[in-house]
Amino acid sequence: MASLHSSFLLTSNFLSLTTPSSSSTHVLFPMRLSTTHLRPLLLTTRHGFGRPPFAAVAEQAATATEASARRLYVGNIPRTVTNEELAKIVQEHGAVEKAEVMYDKYSGRSRRFAFVTMKTVEDATAVIEKLNGTEIGGREVKVNVTEKPLSTPDLPLLQAEESEFIDSPHKVYVGNLAKTVTTDTLKNFFSEKGKVLSAKVSRVPGTSKSSGYGFVTFSSEEDVEAAISSFNNSLLEGQTIRVNKA
């Protein structure tokens, strides 16, 4: 025990702790303390009294905050942009750690947004300043730090939306949706011109925020054609939507 910063002395009823700066007993603990109670003390002893046991927790929290500040959302990118191409574009303004374009699991098409993790917070800030509002492939892109994680009450609702979606080969993609459009709004809107099997509004991963597009499935190809001819370039909650085969 001599190698530790502090030493312990066991008596019949107490555990005493002596610090290296003093030969006198610093603290007395009743022997009723279990190893669970002593664990914080052991951590303090191992790292020295200048480093409280909660310092490691604070460092972990700071690391997580720094990591999220380096992760950027890049929205409204062209469907043809790949991970490598996006990384090259962003690298002109800072060091890139990872670039990942998001793809729809049903259609395999780009979801027109990506996440880019930068090497440093300074790099991330520079990319936002230089790229946000500029054009990539003729489309004005939005660049910002990633959204806040979902709160616990939001999770069951969004999980239910995803699990209840009925996929079908007779499906349309609906783009340029207003942020206020819900899955029910989308389903009811398209039900006017055909038998809708299901509908869903896509969300920015890890959040309840709409990605600005969705999918509607039908029971037949005729319903798909009717939906495209009736609703493409029509207004839904104040925005002109795009409707095409998914």
The number of E-state strands comes to 15
What is the global morphology? elongated
- Major β-sheet strand ordering: 5-6-4-9
Approximate strand percentage: 25-35%
> How would you classify the helix and strand content by structural class?
alpha+beta
Helix content: 25-40%
Number of separate helices:
7
- Ranges where pLDDT stays below 50 over 5 or more residues in a row are 1-58, 148-155
**N-to-C SSE series?**
EEEHHEHEEHEEEHEHEEHEEE
Main beta sheet, described?
A: 4 strands, antiparallel
Q: What gap, in angstroms, lies between the N and C termini?
A: 69 Å
The pLDDT mean sits at 75
Radius of gyration: 28 Å
Summary?
The protein has 246 residues and is of the alpha+beta class. Helix content is 32%, strand content 30%. The chain has helices spanning 35-47, 55-69, 83-91, 121-131, 154-164, 183-190, 221-231; strands at 7-10, 14-18, 27-30, 71-75, 96-103, 110-118, 135-136, 139-140, 142-145, 171-175, 196-203, 210-218, 235-236, 239-240, 242-245.
